[in-house]
């Protein structure tokens, strides 16, 4: 038999207020998921209906459909309700296709890798 502490009770009551609402869930690996909260448990495991992963690279974004999605509570960093009355993203953001966002991610990764390589090559100049 397990004992539910007061923090478990607070977690479950606070998530209950989000049931059937559109949420943004930020995961430990940096992914951002959007969807309607349909169920959860005392460990913050959650079920999102109509879920999608929002991928943002610079000024472009893409929502990749995931369908019904189960999230382990230990991977959740932040959960927040989306205001359906407001735009979710700034107006200057441009929606692109999944293929385009993958190309943008690859280019961003390669630029980051190059920056890291250059930094390592230049470390010898640091005379601290």
Question: What features would you describe in this structure?
Answer:
The chain is of the alpha+beta class and 128 residues long. It has 2 helices and 6 strands. The protein has a 6-stranded mixed β-sheet. It is globular. The chain starts with 5 loop residues before the first helix and ends in a 6-residue tail after the last helix.
Features:
37% strand; single chain; alpha+beta; 128 residues; six-stranded mixed beta sheet
Show the helix and strand layout.
Layout: H1 6-16, E1 22-27, E2 32-40, E3 46-57, E4 60-71, E5 76-81, E6 94-95, H2 98-122
Parallel strand pairs: 4-6
Antiparallel strand pairs: 1-2, 1-5, 2-3, 3-4
Number of helical segments with 4 or more residues: 2
Number of strands: 6
For the largest beta-sheet, the strand count, sense and barrel status come to: 6 strands, mixed
- Shape designation: globular
Q: How many whole angstroms does the radius of gyration measure?
A: 19 Å
Low-pLDDT runs: 1-6
The helix content is 25-40%
Give the end-to-end Cα distance, rounded to a whole number of Å: 58 Å
Secondary-structure element order, N to C? HEEEEEEH
Strand content: 35-45%
Q: Short summary of the structure?
A:
Helices cover 28% and strands 37% of the residues.
């Amino acid at each position: 038999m397990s004992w539910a502490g007061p923090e478990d009770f607070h977690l479950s009551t606070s998530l209950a207020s989000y049931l059937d609402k559109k949420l943004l869930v930020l995961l430990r690996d940096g992914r951002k998921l959007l969807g309607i909260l349909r169920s959860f448990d005392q460990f913050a495991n959650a079920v999102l209906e109509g879920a999608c992963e929002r991928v943002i690279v610079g000024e472009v974004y893409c929502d990749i459909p995931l369908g019904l999605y189960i999230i382990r509570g230990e991977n959740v960093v932040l959960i927040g309700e989306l205001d359906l009355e407001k735009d979710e993203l700034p107006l200057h953001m441009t929606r692109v296709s999944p293929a385009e966002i993958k190309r943008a991610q690859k280019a961003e990764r390669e630029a980051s890798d190059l920056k890291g390589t250059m930094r390592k090559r230049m470390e010898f100049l640091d005379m601290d």
